[in-house]
Specification:
alpha/beta; homotetramer; LDH C-terminal domain-like; 16 helices; six-stranded parallel beta sheet; 418 residues
Amino acid sequence: MKLAVVGGGSTYTPELIDGFARLREELPLSEIALVDPDAHRLSLVAGMARRMLARAGHPAAVTEHAEVGPGVEGAGAVLLQLRVGGQAARNVDETLPLECGCVGQETTGAGGLAKALRTVPVVLEIAEEVRRRAPGAWIVDFTNPVGIVTRALLDEGHRAIGLCNVAIGMQRRFAALLDVPWQSIGLGHVGLNHLTWERSVTVDGREVLPALLEEHAASIAAEVGLPEWIVRDLGVVPSYYLRYFYEHDNVVEEQRVKPSRAAEVAAMEQTLLDVYADPASDTKPELLAKRGGAYYSEAAVALIASLAGDRGDVQVVNARNGATLPFLPPEAVIEVPAVIGASGAAPLPVPAVEPLYRGLIANVSAYEELALDAARNGGERRVRDALLAHPLIGQSDLATGLAARLIAANRAHLPWAV
Amino acid sequence: MKLAVVGGGSTYTPELIDGFARLREELPLSEIALVDPDAHRLSLVAGMARRMLARAGHPAAVTEHAEVGPGVEGAGAVLLQLRVGGQAARNVDETLPLECGCVGQETTGAGGLAKALRTVPVVLEIAEEVRRRAPGAWIVDFTNPVGIVTRALLDEGHRAIGLCNVAIGMQRRFAALLDVPWQSIGLGHVGLNHLTWERSVTVDGREVLPALLEEHAASIAAEVGLPEWIVRDLGVVPSYYLRYFYEHDNVVEEQRVKPSRAAEVAAMEQTLLDVYADPASDTKPELLAKRGGAYYSEAAVALIASLAGDRGDVQVVNARNGATLPFLPPEAVIEVPAVIGASGAAPLPVPAVEPLYRGLIANVSAYEELALDAARNGGERRVRDALLAHPLIGQSDLATGLAARLIAANRAHLPWAV
Amino acid sequence: MKLAVVGGGSTYTPELIDGFARLREELPLSEIALVDPDAHRLSLVAGMARRMLARAGHPAAVTEHAEVGPGVEGAGAVLLQLRVGGQAARNVDETLPLECGCVGQETTGAGGLAKALRTVPVVLEIAEEVRRRAPGAWIVDFTNPVGIVTRALLDEGHRAIGLCNVAIGMQRRFAALLDVPWQSIGLGHVGLNHLTWERSVTVDGREVLPALLEEHAASIAAEVGLPEWIVRDLGVVPSYYLRYFYEHDNVVEEQRVKPSRAAEVAAMEQTLLDVYADPASDTKPELLAKRGGAYYSEAAVALIASLAGDRGDVQVVNARNGATLPFLPPEAVIEVPAVIGASGAAPLPVPAVEPLYRGLIANVSAYEELALDAARNGGERRVRDALLAHPLIGQSDLATGLAARLIAANRAHLPWAV
Amino acid sequence: MKLAVVGGGSTYTPELIDGFARLREELPLSEIALVDPDAHRLSLVAGMARRMLARAGHPAAVTEHAEVGPGVEGAGAVLLQLRVGGQAARNVDETLPLECGCVGQETTGAGGLAKALRTVPVVLEIAEEVRRRAPGAWIVDFTNPVGIVTRALLDEGHRAIGLCNVAIGMQRRFAALLDVPWQSIGLGHVGLNHLTWERSVTVDGREVLPALLEEHAASIAAEVGLPEWIVRDLGVVPSYYLRYFYEHDNVVEEQRVKPSRAAEVAAMEQTLLDVYADPASDTKPELLAKRGGAYYSEAAVALIASLAGDRGDVQVVNARNGATLPFLPPEAVIEVPAVIGASGAAPLPVPAVEPLYRGLIANVSAYEELALDAARNGGERRVRDALLAHPLIGQSDLATGLAARLIAANRAHLPWAV
């Protein structure tokens, strides 16, 4: 199978290549097509990818493409990992909301909306190209905000599934804490992308979450950046992104003191590109682990393998709600365990969601509807409405101020804001 | 019919009496039983009530009761307008949340939760007494937070309907702006108690909201305390209570400068009691208009008359959701137009709710579930969870700090917090 | 010598008695007159004091007085340690400013102003009584805010010195860290009461501060509640009270989560009174160490002994500025090392104060002038001006809101606010 | 006399030229040398200046210079009105502090510090050139922050005076309100640049301030952006810049909603440049009045005329404190009325400053010392110390976060931050 990676010039790609090399039995690939408009960067990354595959004895060809069309031509799956506007735009996502006292984050809150505004139009164009050049291919979206982007794709009739590494990271982490193989771990993962709670953790089907928390609440809480009491009280494991809600003001205080994550990543990327440029280097650099996105390649391989091989196993993905969460519209995109097969993802039934999570999920899902409307149809008013709908913003002054700022700062990436 | 008013010693009662007198054709009453533990206050108010009825030539007897049992004995309807803890407790509701940077209000946010915690146990006891002494009687709840209190009553199988004067006030206000009789005005009122939007205003069935806003957006916005642009952009009329959401931080700033509403009302009440003590006074004092609760007597008379007379007209009330709003559980209590008859309130169908309102309604409704759980079952953890679920609070530190403060300050009124 | 302690019924007094017992060589006392309007509490504390002195073989009589006049009659020194309004008023000082987003503290910011308003009139009345009944006696003020109270006394021509335990605590702490006798430690202590920096620490005259910070910055920073970097960067040791300035918003966040210090102390006091009521108890309870005020008795004994014995040693006290700090008016009261003799305290020369400290000292000293004016002359406008002058408040809205709140909550203790 | 204007390519210059034309009797000029590195802009402005002078029949030559040296060669006076980094840097000054919840302003607070860091090194280089090429020339500094820049110049022994249009604007405004000639108005202006209060307003020597406020407090308060009560209570007229102190949080709220002033000015400048490029335009465009800096040309002409003509009249300027304000060091630069003659400015005596103003002046003056130290000697630590000393910042977290941000955003203009 040919696999196309849009945004293939990312410093991140070697993580993916490493996974393809290690898991070649699971997902045999004949060609990895890297698509990126930045030719210089792409050549460095592609060179590194070739050396890594060579070292692993993997037979796949790595091809380089400036244009999406030729890149996705005939592909069996297309992975989206692009970043419209690069780290510079991310830096704005992370700092500009602070001007209004709101958390600066590239997937949550105002920054996440800005990213959706920039990303959705580009992704939809790419998907049209995929439809033309690789009609049956699955589009696996790893580009944030995954929930909104996936819904945009599904609304246009594309064969798309959204992917995130939060669940797989939880699975591996719990396996390590419990000292069991990760394959034995099942997750009661529920919510929206970057707004999820693990309400159940099983080992070979046996519930272990209460015992896990009894023993490891402190370390789990530290990892997700929440106070221990909240993890103990709730009896569930919120994802790290809940920190932006439950600890909003504290995060703002921290962000006021620390430099932005984008600034850190930008520095890291330069170092990574230097490594990739070295013709002698053929193994994934350790620094890449700090770049974010752990287990992303495992998740991607597993998902594509199950889609291609109709395996029918359970994976956590972003897919249409249907009747899974009765308090959300059927068209909403949710993040839950689903059976993955040739026809896509079928969410498993989910036990009734407690009001503490249900209320927030419903609120953020409604925001996502408005965010997608703004991304697709543009206009300051739609942007403002989406901000007013977001539980971390929700005020008229903030919505006004942030809308004007977001649009001004992202004008170059907003087709409607010329 | 005998009507019992629990909290009958309120300075407010003459407003109600005035309505009974004016609308006696609509709702013929033989006895008005005022129930209040404060005998001195009750005697002043009852005296005033008798003089007002006498002046109007109304034949009803006004009786005074320290205990609920005798007061509600044989009543056809029981009106709840009590205030557990009085203006002093209200003052705490309005000032204590400010210590944590949150809006201080007696029905919204942390103050509303405190009021629910104090009120629900008392109301449920009263309702048991009503069940024993006046088995078929309707309980009409005007005591805030009306949504939570009404659900508490319904969950226990009482014949209860929640009543608020927001919708009737909107109706009268729009009638004045449009210069039409208020009876011709229909409202597309939707949401939860104190969290509603008028999405439609009709005159004799004809939609006039766009025209109304075109001409009167500025004055309507001023009345509901919101910026004009938000009213124009949304194209609907949010209730005044949305101000605590859309303008949260601005309200906090204002509350930092101004004295609390409770302090104002306490001063007003003293003046009113002086009037009531005057044996010569037999008409509703003008000051009462500033006390809040305009049109409350009209709303109460209309509701009781329709329940008693099986009139089948449409009134805005608080009742079980059922299938009305599909994004809320059937047991949730919502505030919408409903057909009122001998068997209670049957909500009319509601057009699909836009995501901007739907998300917030769902979030606050989920909070109300947790608030009711805390009020019924007690415990700092339940209080904290309810606060964490509230979109105006939602942070772990705030939930912790407010829970401890609310419980400490309301200890005398919390059966479980001895 | 007879020593009178006004506020002698404090749960604190046994700390003082313990010092008198241990240091009897230094300060021989024939009578300790405890003055307190709360007769019950006074009798418990006086009983405890007598048992402690008996156990130590100290010959002094302990007398109890409800009135100041008889209590101070013929005293050689009068110690002021009263608390107008008790822990309840303190609780207001600590929580009410939070309503406006300001730190709640009983000596700094709005809480400190409230305490000044309550305290100054009472202290001035006491001082007049001292002038009549014990004309040559020194008044040693330990009642906060010490700087403002001391200036009030000096402005009226009383023989007064202000005393605080911050400097003596620093001295003992540095001695422990350096493992030298505390008597060998000299402090370059400068500023106003509760707004001081140690710019020099000497051992037998040799400067050791740089070395001390080199080795112990982390533990010193932790003790004064500041980040280590700030202690290292400044190269001086700010007092714990600078935390309310340098970490203002963080302290507000903490106070939002935690109960007030007054609530803690109130609980502690009940336990202490139970101990004092036990006829078998004759030693200072360990809990007293947590009550605050460590080394207070040492400081008081040393000061009174030097005043009485004209010892001419150097102690850190609150006294008139004169020409010591050229950027403050001569009448300002400052807290610096001074030579203590029969004629009072003569501040030692102070090296030029760096602008980082000078600006804040000048600002707070100007506030203190206005605070004293408000305390002496009353009126909402003077209160507002003092708040507007305070660097932690300084805004018109906050000054308005806090002035109204402070006056309303302290009305019972403000002679001019009837 | 030759007058050199450094930053002569400013869109502002025609304002100055208009004054030179109108007031040619007062200040006869033979050459106006405009110095600016932006040749295109300079040519547009110089062309406009020539046409304006021609229209007025003014004989002065307008010369254009890219370099300071030739521009100031032989000048009698040098006017500094440059802006290092242009409107882009100003935009950062106005928005970046908001990320930390602090007011964004180009002369006050963190933005003012950033401007000082950028400006002082450039101005000192220019001044050295003036010393070489025009040894006796007076340097009149209109570049902000005027207080810090003037002190930097004086500390290096330059013949410098700082100029601001706040006082002259007050004078003209009061004259209009009182309907008297502006020449008859005397001001009791005191403080630091952009931190001043008018404590006296005289007409021909007669005090009229109380009467002025009695009648016009509302309109004066509106103009300086403060609540009327504060102007009435204080009985003085604070400058508009006090708004950033007395109304700090409200200004932050406003700035969150509105676009930055820099963005407005940038738009305005483009329009102005279009006008200047039009060969037919020869009169000051009306839009210029909105650009800021009203009466600046009058102030500049008056000051240079008095310096050159040794007139000995009184003007409000920025000069060394000496013994004028005893609570500030003699080297501090203050803004007060001074006698202007050939030897410069001699401040008039100032009545004792009330503590409400004195404390803030002393605090900000101390900050200015540290700001100048940071501007001259560089380093993150000095920047942090200056921020910690500023009464609008003053917290360790804010100082850390703002220092890192200011340096990162202004790196290109900071010689020490490569």
